[in-house]
Write a structure and sequence with these properties.
The chain contains ten helices and 15 strands. It is of the alpha/beta class. It folds into two domains: 124 residues, 3-Layer(aba) Sandwich (Rossmann fold), CATH 3.40.50; 122 residues, Rossmann fold, CATH 3.40.50. The protein starts with a helix and ends with a helix. One of its GO terms (cellular component) is cytoplasm. InterPro entries: HAD-like_sf (IPR036412), HAD-SF_hydro_IIA (IPR006357), HAD_sf (IPR023214). This is HAD-IIA family hydrolase. Pfam families: Hydrolase_6, Hydrolase_like.
């Protein structure tokens, strides 16, 4: 990498970062993350975290980053759970919702006065049909590390009603951890599509434009003045490119360098780096 690249990076005003696989993996901060964000903060750049991970509230992400020594405020965090709650509250405000997902998603939905019908931890000891399946208006899915047989059975039967909407926070099939990959929110969608014999109606998170456009709006930045740092080509990079945002592909996360051959060249990242620590060296 050359010093010219460092000069090029500083021409941007808004810096958008994916979380998992770029800044951290679960509870482990990745090399260069804290240092790069500190440099950008000193340069008065606008920083936003754009994550498809729906398992936590925005407040929990602020606290998570604080534990890494990274200080951001609530408005700098955009999650698929928060945007899903915002979308549903604005579009279907009186809806009754069944959630395949974790507590953070349920809390985001309830904070905007949406009714989550399964706001407890469902166990396999429960009868799947001991639930008013007909009362549900929307099934919302996200990553669920406490997924149970009874949850799948209920969601499957609810979705057989074609009037019930099927919304996904994100379609990430896998999720990176320090030990390897585990099933992500997209895996929940695939399972339910197969079980219910229907396709999902709406997906909120990246690569859909909603999260990118909201970050642009909050940052008051032009598309050409923003850059997205991501580790997943099909969501972070393709999604940002579709909106017209510059991109930096960070290796070591969900996608590999060899995966570039699967992309149309119009979606190729503008910058490729092994890690954020490599970028820190430029500055």
């Amino acid at each position: 990498m050359s010093s010219n690249l460092g000069e090029k990076l500083f021409q941007f005003n808004a810096f958008f970062f994916d979380g998992d696989g770029v800044l951290y993996k679960e509870n482990t901060i990745l090399p260069g993350a804290k240092e790069l964000l500190s440099i950008l903060e000193e340069k008065k750049k606008k920083i936003f975290i754009l994550t498809n991970n729906s398992t936590k509230t925005r407040e929990e992400y602020v606290e998570k980053l604080k534990n890494f020594g990274i200080n951001v405020n609530l408005n700098q965090i955009l999650t698929s759970a928060y945007l899903t709650a915002k979308h549903v509250s604005e579009t279907f405000p009186e809806s009754k919702i069944y959630v395949i997902g974790e507590q953070g998603l349920k809390e985001e939905l309830e904070r905007v006065n949406l009714q989550v019908l399964n706001n407890w931890e469902e166990k396999n000891s429960e009868d799947p049909f001991d639930f008013d399946l007909e009362s549900v208006d929307i099934v919302i899915t996200g990553m669920d590390r406490k997924l149970t047989y009874v949850k799948l059975a209920r969601a499957m039967n609810i979705l057989k009603n074609k009037h019930v909407r099927f919304i996904g926070t994100n379609a990430d099939i896998t999720f990176p951890t320090p030990s390897g990959f585990v099933p992500g929110g997209g895996a929940m969608i695939d399972i339910l599509e197969t079980l219910s014999n229907r396709k999902i109606d709406t997906i909120i998170g990246k690569p859909k434009p909603l999260m990118f456009n909201m970050a642009l709006e909050l940052s008051s930045a032009k598309k050409t003045d923003a850059i997205m740092f991501g580790d997943r080509l099909e969501t972070d990079i393709v999604g940002a490119k579709n909106v017209g945002i510059n991109t930096c592909f960070v290796l070591g996360g969900a996608s590999k360098l060899s995966d570039l051959v699967k992309l149309d060249k119009t979606f190729y990242p503008d910058i490729i780096t092994n890690s954020l620590s490599d970028l820190v060296q430029l500055f």
